[in-house]
Automatic annotation (TrEMBL):
GO terms for molecular function: transmembrane transporter activity. It comes from Chryseobacterium wanjuense. It is found in: Membrane. SUPFAM superfamilies: MFS general substrate transporter. InterPro entries: MFS_trans_sf. The chain crosses the membrane at residues 20-40, 52-71, 105-125, 137-157, 169-188, 200-223, 235-254, 275-301, 307-328, 337-358, 364-385, 397-422, 467-489. This is Major Facilitator Superfamily protein.
Length: 529
């Protein structure tokens, strides 16, 4: 009646593994929009780019909303029925994105797509984790594959959009989803994973509050610059709505018999420190917006050349994955692995700081992008492992939704918005500084317009350089924190050593006293004799 696997017994093991790999390749990079595709969608629909950044955030929010209930959904339905239905729905949603020109529809589709995608992904996580065994090694393999597939899919989204149009890539993904649905119908068994559980225990109101909290937050982070932040009533109202939704969500968890979120895990040291490190990881990931300004706005790269820069991170991601496998197999402490990840990110920022020049060649990208890839892979693996370490399965699934949204959307969105704002402010300051040298003695009025582009580019370079400088300073502070943090090891070992010595001295004194008593007893016995 029950079968914890995915496939029928007659399917050979190599075919089962191949099917899992194909599902991973098709499902995990799925999204409502693709980063490299946004500029083409803006040109094709005539809408603001902020709408499509909002849609990108919505996919992550949908994934986070699904995580607390994903195990219950897995046990409620038969494997084949669920997988086929979900893949068909994902294919249809991709078709909707390919045929609509409304950004609001794309945002809604992206939210639903993230929710459904996580139900499929959990079916792939468990067999892979059982095959690999060690959780740390699994993270090393899994995150390397996910991050690599994400970079490759973004590149091909751009390439297909250039050769055909941006809708065609969604059509290709829809066809792949429907083909995988057909293969799942043929190869998968039609049994339950384990004991069938009801769905009425799920608190759907909490899911709605979770989504509304972060969707309002995504609107603020996406449209903040365009709406001029607190000078816009829409931004203020969305911020208030996000805060109220989150407050109601938290209060509601204390009234439920089966809470949607596990808030108790956020009192644990490793979870809090993990969230702190993920916050600063978001700072380094937020530099992508500054990198794009430099590559496209200053160096004049086209979209395909800019997308190739993401492919340069793949060797670094592979190196991080191999290092993680070695690290966890040897059961080494996490501190230096995390330290190496942040060090690589600082190395990337340092190189970019000194590379803000107009004469930057394409070959100069190899080292910084390798370091960025290694740092991203190492920190995704190690910090995620540390954050969720020693949590019970139910608590982990109930908390992982918030942690996922925090890592992938919230902190990255916050730092991207901050860097975009600071870049604009620093650019104005840089233009003011350059204006000091722009007078009739150095630049004649006739030459001002011909030199205006160079002046603007130098202002952008100065602003970018200043941002990377501040990031480097903060990064060294993060390195100091990593070096001084215990990462679960016993702190103040010298006190423990002193206690041992004290214990030994007490035991020694006790034994000496016992010998004295024995000798006294012997002496007393001798006298009696």
């Amino acid at each position: 009646m029950y079968n914890k696997g995915l496939f029928n017994d007659w399917v050979p093991k190599p075919v089962q593994l191949l099917m899992i790999v194909l599902l991973v390749i098709v499902v995990l990079p799925l999204g409502g929009v693709y980063t490299g595709n946004i500029s083409f969608m803006v040109g094709g629909t005539g809408e603001l780019s902020e709408y499509f950044m909002f849609a990108s955030y919505a996919t992550t929010i949908g994934m986070g909303a699904c995580m607390p209930i994903v195990l219950r959904m897995k046990m409620r339905f038969k494997v084949r029925n669920k997988m086929v239905l979900l893949l068909v729905l994902l294919g249809l949603l991709n078709c909707v994105n390919a045929t609509t020109f409304s950004p609001v529809v794309i945002i809604g589709v992206s939210l639903v797509m993230g929710f459904l995608k996580m139900m499929v992904a959990i079916e792939l996580f468990l067999p892979l984790m059982m095959m690999i065994g060690d959780r740390g090694v699994f993270y090393g393999v899994f995150y390397t594959a996910v991050l690599t597939l994400t970079q490759i899919s973004s590149y091909y989204a751009v390439k297909v959009s250039i050769v055909y149009n941006w809708q065609q890539f969604f059509i290709v993904i829809a066809i792949l989803c429907l083909v995988m649905a057909l293969l799942c119908w043929v190869l998968m068994h039609n049994k339950y994973f384990s004991l069938k559980v009801p769905l009425y225990h799920i608190d759907w109101m909490s899911i709605i509050l979770f989504m509304s909290t972060f969707m309002f937050s995504a609107y603020v982070l996406s449209f903040g610059k365009q709406q001029d932040w607190l000078n816009s009533t829409k931004i203020i109202n969305s911020s208030i709505a996000a805060f109220v939704s989150f407050a109601v969500l938290i209060v509601r968890q204390f009234t439920l018999k089966r809470p949607y979120l596990s808030l108790s895990v956020f009192t644990r040291s490793n979870v809090l420190n993990g969230l702190f490190m993920l916050f600063w990881l978001g700072m380094f990931l937020g530099t992508t917006s500054i990198q794009n300004i430099f590559a496209v706005g200053v160096l004049g790269y086209d979209q395909l050349t800019n997308a190739k820069l993401s492919l340069l991170m793949i060797p670094g991601l592979g190196a991080a994955g191999m290092t993680a496998i070695f690290w966890f197999k040897r059961q080494k402490p996490l501190k230096m692995f995390i330290f190496s990840g942040f060090s690589a990110m600082i190395g990337y920022a340092l190189i970019m700081y000194f590379s803000m020049v107009l004469e930057f060649n394409y070959e100069y990208w190899y080292l910084p992008m390798f370091l960025k890839g290694y740092g991203m892979g190492a920190l995704f693996i190690s910090v995620w492992f540390y954050t969720l370490d020693k949590l019970e399965l139910n608590d982990m699934l109930a908390a992982i939704g918030l942690v996922l949204v925090w890592r992938t959307f919230l902190v990255v969105g916050i730092f991207s918005a901050l860097m975009s704002w600071f870049q604009y402010q620093f650019q104005i300051v840089s233009l003011g500084d350059l204006a000091v040298y722009m007078d009739g003695m150095t630049i004649s009025p006739q030459n001002v317009m011909s030199n205006m582009k160079t002046i603007q580019l130098n202002a952008i370079l100065a602003a970018n350089k200043k941002i990377f400088g501040y990031i480097i300073l903060v990064g060294f502070g993060v390195l100091l924190y990593v070096l001084t943090h215990h990462f679960g090891a016993k702190r103040f070992e010298y006190l423990r050593f002193i206690r041992v010595l004290n214990g030994k001295s007490i035991i020694a004194k006790r034994r000496i006293r016992e010998r004295e008593i024995v000798e006294e007893i012997k002496d007393a016995a001798g006298s009696a004799m």
